[in-house]
Model the fold of this input.
Amino acid sequence: MTALRCLPAGDGAVLAELGSLAETLALFQALGARPAGVEDVIPAARTLLVPFDPAVLSARAVAAWLRRAASAVAAGSAGGLVAAGGVSGSPGAGLAKGPSGLPHAGPAAGGDPSGPSAGGLAADAGRRVEIPVRYAGEDLEEVAGLLGLTRAELIERHTGTDYLAAFAGFAPGFVYLAGGDPCFHGVPRRAAPRVRVPAGSVAVAGDFSAVYPSDSPGGWQLLGATPWRMWDMDRAEPALVQPGFRVRFRDLDAPGAVWSLPASVGSAASAGSAALAAAAAQAPSREAAGAPAPSALPGLSKSSGLVDSSDPSAASAPVSALAAASAAAAEPAAACEVLDAGLQTLVQDEGRPGLTRLGVSRSGALDRGAMRRANRLVDNPPGLPVLEHALGGLRLVCRGRAVVAVTGATAPVVATSASGMRLPAAAGHPIELREGDELRIGRVRAGVRCYVAVRGGWAVRPVLGSCATDILAGLGPAPLRRGDRIPIGRLVPNRGGALDAPGGDAGDAADAPEASGAAAAPHAPHAPDAPEAPEAPEAAPPRAGERVFLDVIPGPRDDWFEAGALHRLLSQDWIVTPQSNRVGMRLAGAEPLVRSRAGELPSEGTVAGALQVPPSGQPVLFLADHPLTGGYPVIAVVPVGQLDRLAQVPVGAVLRFRRAPRPL
Done:
């Protein structure tokens, strides 16, 4: 095994670099039980990214754990390692090695290509997915010419062997497929990425093949398209292919071609693979083949929405949109109706940790501290769903009774009764609302995002265990719109462990206005239970044009840049451009950061706070909805403790970076 390099990716992750994909997967399988504080392990082409909690564990301890496992792999003693350099039952076991040390997922000598000899990750050894492809991609002829093959020879080689699903990244359901015919190894990406690659596109680049699960930008070479949906939230397992599976491409136009889905997934896919094969062979479009159009991709409308917590059937019933779920909600439940959502209002919580196997990054609230403060102000657990609202203009009207709190950016917070009377209200304090009362957040004066919590939490249906909206992955509830009705959770734990209604006890119902329009009872001051500890004051958020100082930890790929690049990063102003969102902040500086290395960086895991540098030399500062993996080098990373501040940096602000010590 190549000597392991452990590189810092900020103060909350270690990037372990190895010599090949085979070595990476062997180490991944050898790690075993994770130490307390290790949050995930994200495999990629030649690296393992290990995010950890710096309050529990140090980078040096994580690196020592990785080195011990690597030494065991090299010695062949990590729980059944084989001489070939893999782990028994892992992708390295029983796999022939192609060029560059990549595993070739064909059968071992004399083995059955449909049997388990190709290996797999963990319990998925032997699971095999056949993917029908119509080979008519835009780059098919160009790639054939590059490889010195005819069109027919290229198709024969691409369908001639199994591939190993090595790791997930880029987007949910996007899995890097290793192995295949060696002729495809080293195929370059396109010089200029396409703005839109259609869902279902089958592509090659570097040492991998892949299928795009959704419409997205992309720079891989397109060979064809499949009618299968790689990611579908209506299936029991949303990802058609997961790391450890074996994949075989089949030519859709070949006479008599047949294929099948894995048994655990097939029941949710279609009436049968043979019927779909016939339909797909007659009509190349996804619609004709029975696959939904891109606008109906999972995680947007059909897989997410709001749910009335009083209706037990709503937890499992699919909904088409927020408004549809709201219309189905029982009328007695308290709710807030959106009169104006402003520029953007999303539902957020603490995100989706631990789903990197599916290509899903964590996402969640950008300013987690503000989210937790808002929840504590209304006596909620700190991670309940909140509304994340950008730049002001949000207007909500209460239907029933509620206690809300607003934190985050500096903005006027106004509450008025149904009759127009001004009510006591201020950011950073609990606000009582009754039937017909309106909450309004004015134009943000400093910062970007406000967080609105309600006692009992917003009753939003979880998607993959979280209510967070991930704008890159298209997971979670759609952005709020005028007319959406957001139900409020009915019960929350009180200090003694019992359950209380968010509006008070059952007698509160008598205080609600009658349906005939009778006036509500006068507002009485709300006195929630005293918090367990005083709330720490929020730091003043920055304004456009102000200079914001942030620490950065060099690496993990600062050695990919010219000697003076790190100095340029630290010595000049970086303006936050309008091309910024929850995925990342695009920065502009007078002097670009110039690389010293040519070629492409093999895809590797990324973290929030990473300063990734594309060929333009103008960095992108990743935020919560960043892609799981990336192929541009990261010159430095903002420490974990300063990520919340990034959420409040507006367009037009000026960033100045200060060097912080490396933890490794």
Residues 77-124, 262-332, 495-499, 501-534 have pLDDT under 50 and may be disordered. The longest helix spans residues 59-75. The radius of gyration is 27 Å.
